[in-house]
Amino acid sequence: MRRSQAGDADAFASLYDAYVERIHRYIYFRVADDEQAEDITSHVFLKAWEKLDSYQAGSSAFIAWLYRIAHNAVIDDYRTRKVTVPLEDTRPTEIHHQDGIDEKLDLQFESQQLRKALQGLTEEQQQVLILKFINELSTEEIAQQLGKQQGAIRALQMRALQNLARSLGPNAEKANER
Amino acid sequence: MSADLASILEDSLERLAQGETLQACLARYPEQATELERLLSAATRLESAAHEARPSTAFKARARVQLRAHMAVHPRRRHRALPRVSPIFRLALGLTTLLLAFTITGTALAQSALPEEMLYSWKLTSEHVWRSISPDQVGVDLALVERRVDEALAVSDNSPAQEVALQGYQKVVTDLTKSYDSSAQERIQISLKVQQEKLKNAGVKLPVVVDQNPDPASVSPIKPNLTPISNPGDRTPPVIIVKPTLEIPALEDPLH
């Protein structure tokens, strides 16, 4: 971290390698399509490089700082994109493997459904569910990240899952059947 | 009810993460089982979809190249990172600075202190330090003589304080007349004469000073032609009385 802050590009590239997947996962379900998720993920690391002086090691984990940049980037992107693209019209995810193509398409459909359902939630509800179930943070870590009490996070989590289950409808039981 | 369900949901999520089955979790809370099942199912679907959010290798490589290019175009200003200072070191540094500031301020204030005042001993200590580090010790001693005379005049209404000042005066005069060679004596005599005049004009009489530890090497027989101070009509200062074998420094007028 210190080397990165001193201007060492190799050191920052190592940080990118270590955190890019987590940041992409965080962004993925909050935007309409894969391309948008990738653009914002790239932007997060460019922004982090420029703002690295403002990160104070010890005050919070570097990943928590990156999550904050990612959250702001998603909000900014949402505000600046004047034309919203319906999820049904978005480019389908590129399929790289021919094997198990049906299963892959099924997963992609499921992923799109979840995306759509998540984006119907409030900002905080989206953050809580993604940090908990996609990024696998504990309730305590989420509370620190969002600056809230753990009790408040549990309540948010419950309401978010209630809304998500309502949006998903009868398909909510689908995962358990798998 | 909601608060209870939030806690039950949290507990059930932890149990699922530890490997407990969904049915076992629901069996623990039969009253909330229906609602709980909906929530846990939604949570499970999210967890299952997490791997879909993994970026492709092609994207990671492309974004890495883009980041590298950006870093090359916008290099961060390389600066030497400041050493991390521990809180204890910072505390010590702060206390040292405070102590230094206190010493400097106290020493400055002490320079105007008079005998029997709180800061007077601080003033004398600072004069010792001054004398020990100054390259011109004669100059310092002459300045000290002047200080003692000024102090004696300033506390003329306080006999004990004046006595302290005059004893200090005589000690410096003794040092001056004993410690320096003849080349410095001319300068010393001129300066002392001025101080003597000041005391004389103010009507100050010098007390008797006894050197308790005379240096035998510097002792010489008493010269018979000294002016005694016991003459009531004579107010000629300053005569240093040394008992019984010390040489009494004669303050000759070099202008004569």
Please give a structural write-up.
The complex is a heterodimer of chains A (178) and B (256). Chain A is mainly α and 178 residues long. Helix content of chain A is 68%, strand content 0%. In chain A, helix 2 runs antiparallel to helix 3 (34-50), helix 2 packs across helix 4 (62-80) and helix 7 packs across helix 8 (150-168). The radius of gyration of chain A is 18 Å and the shape is globular. Residues 88-93 and 172-178 of chain A have low confidence and may be disordered. Chain B is mostly helical and 256 residues long. Chain B contains 9 helices and no strands. Chain B is elongated, with a radius of gyration of 44 Å. At the A-B interface, helix 2, helix 3, helix 5, helix 6 and helix 8 of A face helix 1, helix 3 and helix 4 of B.
Query: What is the quaternary state of this protein?
Result: heterodimer
Unreliable spans of chain A are 88-93, 172-178
Distance between the termini of chain A: 42 Å
Helix/strand/pairing class of chain A, anyone?
Answer: mainly alpha
Helix- and strand-based class of chain B?
mainly alpha
* Rg over alpha carbons of chain A: 18 Å
Note the main sheet of chain B: none
Strand content of chain B: under 5%
- Roughly how many Å is the radius of gyration of chain B? 44 Å
Choose one word for the global shape of chain B. elongated
Order of helices and strands of chain B: HHHHHHHHH
Number of strand elements of chain A: 0
What do the pLDDT scores of chain B average to? 78
Q: What sequence of helices (H) and strands (E) makes up the elements of chain A?
A: HHHHHHHHH
Tally of alpha and pi helices of chain B: 9
Kindly state the percentage of residues in helix of chain B.
55-70%
Number of beta-strand segments of chain B: 0
Biggest interface, and residues per chain?
Answer: A-B, 54 and 44 residues
Number of helical elements of chain A: 9
